[in-house]
Specification:
Helix content is 57%, strand content 0%. The chain has 148 residues and is mostly helical. The chain has a single domain, classed as RNA Polymerase II, Rpb4 subunit (Growth Hormone, Chain: A). The longest helix is centred in the C-terminal third of the chain and has 21 residues. The radius of gyration is 18 Å and the shape is globular. Belongs to the eukaryotic RPB4 RNA polymerase subunit family.
Amino acid sequence: MSGEEEENAAELKIGDDFLKAKCLMNCEVALILEHKYEQLQQMSDDPMNQVSQVFEKSLQYVKRFSRYKNPDAVRQVREILSRYQLAEFELCVLGNLCPETVEEAIAMVPSIKVGLFRHLVWPFYLRLLLIRSVYSDNEINSGDKQIN
């Protein structure tokens, strides 16, 4: 991005580095940090000296704001959203915020193409809402649920 152009997320003018970067949804970060947390607990002999406060707070944050808790649901959300011509940034915002209407989605991510989103992506996006309801926090992680 040239120095003269102003960055604008609504138009996906976020800089070449960010456009090429792999973004993670909160639920994906939560899975990664939970795995690392388990590893750190197993490796440490002193339970008081296991993880930093920053690590703990980061884990708490992403767990609190993750819409999907089940690893299978997380995988399906990324898989469904990756089928469309969404930028990584758009994919993650939609996956994190889970808008319930097309208008809400467009308001949250103005850079998405309205026509494309309304007619092509939205019907499949509704599957994400279904995934969220199927894989509720009270569900047992059985791994046998698949939404296509």
